[in-house]
Amino acid sequence: MERRDFFKVMGVSLATVASNALPQSFLDGAHASSINAITSLPKSDTARFAWTVDDGCSHDAVENYINFVADNDLRLTFFVYAGMSPWQTNQKILKPMVQSGQIQLANHTMRHPFLTKLTTKQVQKELMDCHNFMERNYGIDARPYFRPPYGDINAAVINAAADIGYTRPMLWSGTLADSGKVGSAKFMNLAHLAMRDRGIVLGHANNMVASNHFDQLLEIVNSRGLSTVTLTDAFGV
Ligand SMILES: [Zn+2]
Asked: What is the whole-number distance in angstroms between the Cα of residue 2 and the centre of ligand 1?
């Protein structure tokens, strides 16, 4: 896995590289991909994790995350579901933080479909519609990071994305399970499990659950001596 974390596509065909690290289910029905979905950060000298927040269905949840990051000198990556209006309604406060690199925007598609059910062209359109939205509204090129909605991914999706420059399919090492409502005890229990060195933590900006626990989440980060990094911080691209 680590070797592939660092793998860079240098204009060579992905299918020409060995794919022996992929489970067979990834290979069925598609040409062999050389890229694995990524579920942890590379090793480093400091204890750190990537705090990643998906969707953005709630204006207030997105706004609260932005203020939380700003107020506490954190670094965070949003996986933008571009069809949701909070990415427009929060643009004014978010854009400066994206431009400074404190918050990174990555691709979570335009309409949040199950990508494995789509054709290659449809997968690419989902990613490019989101890509173009971020370029228009935030002036950034979000490649190479994308996260498939529901974690729904296979070799065909990986290859379709890689062909348009989305060469880093990002999954996660621990989830806060807050895409919908989740109880406080379960949420905090999952946070204790997820927030670890080299972790990729999956949260959502769809409701107020995380906002209501920001102080407790920060306490975990600080008590464990963890720092937060964006994907570009961690992977250097
Ligand atoms: Zn999602």
From this structure: 25
